[in-house]
Amino acid sequence: MTRRDSDRQRMVRWGSVGLAVLVAVASMTVSAEARSRKARKPAQAASSYNPPTASIVIDGNSGAVLHASNADAIRHPASLTKMMTLYLLFERLDSGKVKLNTEMPASAHAAAQAPSKMGLKAGETIKVETAIKALVVKSANDVATVIAEYLGGDEPTFARMMTAKARALGMAHTTYRNANGLPDDEQVTTARDQALLGRALQDRFPNYFRYFNTRSFVYEGRTIRGHNRLLGSVDGVDGIKTGYIRASGFNIVTSVNRNNRHLVAAVFGGRSAGARDALVRSLIDTTYKVAAAKRTAPPVAEGTAVAEIKMPAKPPTPVTDPRVEEVASIDSPEVGSSAPIKPSAVKTVLVRPGKTQMAALSELPPAGRNLMPPRPNPATVMTIATVKSDLPPPSVDTEPGILGTLPAKAAAPRQQVASVGAAVPVPAPVQDTLGSAKTRSGWMIQVGAFPEEQAAKERLEAAQSKAKAQLGHAEPFTEKVAKGDRSLFRARFAGLEKTQAEAACKNLKRSEIPCLLMKN
User: Fold this and answer.
1) Is 476 helix (H, G, I), strand (E, B) or coil?
2) Rounded distance, CA 454 to CA 345, Å?
3) How far from the centroid of its chain's Cα atoms is residue 324's Cα?
4) Spatial separation of the C-alpha atoms in residues 463 and 491, rounded to whole Å
5) Residue 101: how many CA atoms within 13 Å on its side-chain side?
């Protein structure tokens, strides 16, 4: 072999070795980059989700704010919403209008709510006490909607009641759009507002607040366990509620009662349940040292006047459940007043619906009346616009009208009331076994329809007190009308000029009293 051949072979061998080294290095580089990208992905995902933390700690004994960070920044309440849902339910329990063993029915709308849920089916019922535990422990969205519909007639109406109650408590930056906290851009609150609600629940309902300490319960043979890991792990923690939606992170309102000291903490924006709980623990440890050992602050209570409620411009999301057609006939004294409503001396006329019948404003279920206090400013009040006909079920020759279902011949002219100020012809009174109804001239207004006559009389008294200038000399009367196998009592005023009737309706709207304008 020549030297040239030998050199050539060495060059081939070294070239092969170099190529192998290059391939190995390239492979290692690609592998390292892949591992690096894989390692970076969680960090990138975490950094893209970084809701700003908002927190507050209030001394329940003194009312002093012991810690605050973004406490008034707008956040979404998520399942903390259910605290207010339960507040309104506790009110009904406290007044005796519902009982712990009261059965509440589930509608199709309630059954269709997204998880977390108990899995109720339309037509099933759930007891009030079980519903409380389902909200506290399971944070069941379907059960929250069941409560809303039972107390408010439909969920949008109940959300208005929740917002009104929030204002009465001083929660100035909270607006509710649903009863369970499922995502809605217009459902907002602050850490300060939620801490205030946490204090109010304890001060107002000490007998029912104990439910917030429930860690598990048995339902249809299944043990349902809760999400609040601070219960049983942090000394003195006795509630109250956790929540999560992506827009505001992991949230919590926590109550601590330890050695005569009482703290209420609210935290929004936890990156995980563990991170949220760790922050709460730290806040408790820090502020407990300076908390007062003696109660000096007055109980949190509703104010004597209701602040303005600026409802969002977006209307409530429509639902498929037919109960959404119902309208709340709501009336109550001023918040904080203990004075009873005195019934007005009115006349009752019994009539039966004829071929052309006025669609009446429908009432709430018995448990749902007197829930929402009046609000003073008409510019900031959203008037309920949906109504339900009080006619018998439609026959085959009917078609839907604007406010309900009318006979086809009557529906054709479409002379229904779409808003206050539009006139509707009222049919002539019909004969019945009690005699003929009184013929009335001029204009009249209807301010509600109720299953009991006494409720209709109370509405007349309330309406007359709100619009004394226009209704002081008007003729109040109730009108009984059959509705299937039950009766309704319409609350009406007659003997008005058109301008008087229009002005009366305008004033009544300011007090959240429905008003329907009619011409005799």
Assistant:
1) strand
2) 11
3) 14
4) 10
5) 0
pLDDT single digits (tens) 329-340? 333 333 333 444
Q: What share of the chain is helix, strand, coil (3-state, %, to 5)?
A: 35, 20, 45
CB burial string 482-506: b at 16+ within 10 A, e below: bbeeeebbbbbbbbbeeebbbbbbe
Q: What are phi and psi of 245, to 5 degrees?
A: -140, 155
β-partners of residue 241 are 253
Residue 273, classed as helix, strand or coil, is: helix
Query: Structural domains in the chain?
Result: 54-288 (3.40.710.10), 326-519 (3.30.70.1070)
Amino acid at 106: A
> Degrees (nearest 5) of the Cα angle 334, 339, 343?
100
Give dist(CA 227, CA 177) in Å, integer.
Answer: 24
Looking at residue 296, what is its pLDDT?
95
How do residues 391-430 score in pLDDT, each as one tens digit?
Answer: 333 333 333 332 233 333 333 333 333 333 344 444 333 3
237-245 and 249-258 as β-strands: parallel, antiparallel, unpaired?
antiparallel
The enclosing H or E element of 203 equals helix 191-204
Give 299's DSSP letter.
Answer: P
CA distances from 292 to 170, 261, 435 (A): 23, 6, 71
Decide: residue 520, CB within 10 A, 0-12 exposed, 13-18 middle, 19+ buried: middle
516 secondary structure, DSSP code: E
CA gap 194, 184 in Å, rounded? 17
CA 459, chain centre distance (Å): 25
Q: Report yes or no: 346 and 477 within 8 Å, Cβ to Cβ.
A: yes
